[in-house]
Amino acid sequence: MTQQEKPLIVLVDTHNIMYRMFHTRPPMFSKGMQQRIETVTAVLSSIKSLINVTPLGKAERVIAVADSGKKNHRHLLSLEYKANREPMPEELATQAPILYRALHAYGVPVLVKKDVEADDGIGMLAEHYVRKGYRVMIYTTDKDMFQLVNDDICLFNPRQKKLYKHEDVVEKLGVKPEQVIDFLALKGDSTDGITGIDKVGDVKAAQLLSEYESIEGLVLGAHEIKGKLGENVRAGLSRLFLNKQLTRIINDPEHLTPKEIQYVECHGYIPEMCQQMKNEYGLPLG
């Protein structure tokens, strides 16, 4: 079977898309004028479009994956991890459960895995479906997901309207997808409380990985790096392996329970619930 003949699964990074819609749409209220629903309607519209057509053709199934909002293994590794991140705005947080119900009603399973970030849930599902012979398209604007890209997994950025395959990641970041974890560990992420190497951004991180291939290679060759860059690299070496643990997306499908797999693979359209959501919020789910 050729790559194009493989059935397609689309995994939606739900919170990523919710935030994007929330910050680009004017407020809209439900029929009773008591509940904001502009993010709900915008995300629903996007996912409905994905069900009909994608840049890779028609998908066999679209699955939404969302954060549980609880602490996970990364918080145990580092007290600084996401310690200063602002909580979801209340105007958006109140729309999240409505969106999940609407998607569930429309036949789009919503995986919210306890104590697991959506990135990891997407990684697990992507690998699960690849092992079953599918192609996978991840729908997100999050560059961290580039680490999951391979011959069977690609990423579609809806803001750029661009599909990223292996060669596109190399062109965008200057590193291969299998180097993205090291790339992220080197440059850090202040919003996630991950401290990278001082004065190392995208360009310097890509240059270091071009020469040393990986953080392991960099550690072995750090003594030969000249000037201030060498000083900064050697000063930050001790935290790089922790950073790799924090930036690595878990993609082991063994973490998925049989119940979760049955839900994402078998869930379907619920007409009575769609009618209820239409009556309650005016959502077009027919």
* CATH overall fold name of the largest domain: Rossmann fold
* CATH architecture annotation name of the largest domain: 3-Layer(aba) Sandwich
Biggest sheet, spatial arrangement of strands = 3-2-1-4-5-6
Low-confidence stretches: none
Question: In CATH, what is the homologous superfamily of the largest domain?
Answer: 5'-nuclease
Number of helices: 13
Distance between the termini: 36 Å
Helicity, as a percent range: 40-55%
Describe the model.
By secondary structure, the protein is an alpha/beta fold. The protein folds into two domains: 3-173 and 249-276, Rossmann fold (3-Layer(aba) Sandwich), CATH 3.40.50.1010; 177-247, 5' to 3' exonuclease, C-terminal subdomain (DNA polymerase, domain 1), CATH 1.10.150. It is built from 13 helices and six strands. Strands 3-2-1-4-5-6 form a six-stranded mixed β-sheet, sandwiched between helices. The protein is globular, with a radius of gyration of 20 Å. The relative contact order is 0.15. The mean pLDDT is 95.
